[in-house]
Amino acid sequence: MPRPPHRSFSCGTPSDRFIVNDKWGYGARISPRSYDIMPDPEDLLAHCRDNAHRETGLMLSRLTALLSSQSFLLIAYATSMASAHGRWHEPFTLAIPPVLALLGIALAIEGRRGIKAAAAASCRWQERGDHVITEHPHLLHWPDISRSEASAARRAGEQFPLHAPGIFLVAWGWFACLPPALFLAHI
């Protein structure tokens, strides 16, 4: 089947354009100020919500991967510290646990970047959907919930995924300092 011609709309400035999939799935550039080009605002709202949902799912899958990797590292760290119990002066105590702690720090930093990027993308799509609702208030199916309350609840729900990597950074920093402190205490 031949590919249909690509529809491209260029309205607004380049900084406020975003991609909206057209009926063929190839995407078109639409400005947030020119929703009247789209024949159906429900489709645009559905698109914004689908992308926000996809980005939130990506953020949560990255958080799950971070939690899984941190749990395995913590098990390895605890095992290495338990095997060195009472022998804090040996080189094994100074080599393996701090290396695992540094790996945990590196993973927390990288995980935070990915989680933060996905959260920002989800927030942008939510804002675009809010703009569509502002332009077309009939799309708000449950007007008893104000958009400010929904936005506050959404921000509160994003706090754990954004703060979890920082908590891991603090914990791994403490874990990295523990073996040298135990070594110095038992010299």
From TrEMBL:
It comes from the Bacteria. Keywords: Membrane, Transmembrane, Transmembrane helix. The chain crosses the membrane at residues 59-79, 91-109, 164-185. The keyword Transmembrane helix applies. The keyword Transmembrane helix applies. This is Uncharacterized protein.
